[in-house]
Amino acid sequence: MADVLVVGGIFREVLGRRDGNPEIRLAGSALTAAVAASRLGVSVALASFVGSEDVDSVNALLEHASVDGLLVVLDGASGTFAYEDAAAVQPRPLYRPAETCPTELPPLPEARVVLVFGVPDFDPVRDQAVSRAVGRSTIFLWDRQGWLSRTRDAKAAGALEAASRVLLINSGEAIDEGILDPLTGEICLPGGYARAVIKDGTHGVLVLETEGEYRRSLVPVFPVNASSTVGSGDLFGGVTAACLAAGNDLVYSARLAAAATSIVLASGDTFAPPDLSALALNTLNKSEGHLQWRWPLV
Question: What CATH number did the domain enclosing 183 receive?
């Protein structure tokens, strides 16, 4: 059994720069999150799709990061996200699909925590391999990435058998999808979910837990001068999953994820460094985070 199973896409990313020189890199939500989770010392498996032109580079990266790759290789190039201005607060990419369409995933191992990202052209929540990997003891994390994915229907995700389900979502998506009311602060979680992590960029994070005693906890972030925020939410999800797999509660997991995200954003690198765990703990213990939650609390 793996500690963390990450399911999602691997893509090429084209980051537009204001100097006119674009940066092209291999990343994608699942790849970024899997590497980050592994840096915290837990065992990680990654189930994803990758183009044949990129598979050797991806396998080398996974081996270096000690991530078990469960890859479906597509003919030709991987899908591509092109960000016109990667330095924007919320850069919105144009998506070009892979040359061949994803099919079903291979058999997947059960895991203590399963982190699933929405994927264009594929619905991982309804994939039979994912449903078999999510067992009664699993903590299931779903990062909807609603406007990127066709996984709009929360019913399938909420119906998966799991010990607990956690919704990971940013505030803009939560408002657009009727989960967060920006005027009253009321939150309406999709069916089957009792916990949520709502991220609001440099304004902080809200952790909502309705299992047993109703509780809302605000988590500060650690502002940095970042050249790009692309992938920061994915890294946040990977660290959160790893912390939960190690037995930590959701609030602490979100706090350490916020600290870890600041480390990588400050570095300007695509992926988390090998010593991410130590760096994040040092940040958490020695630095004061910033919190300016913009929505009412009820």
Answer: 3.40.1190.20
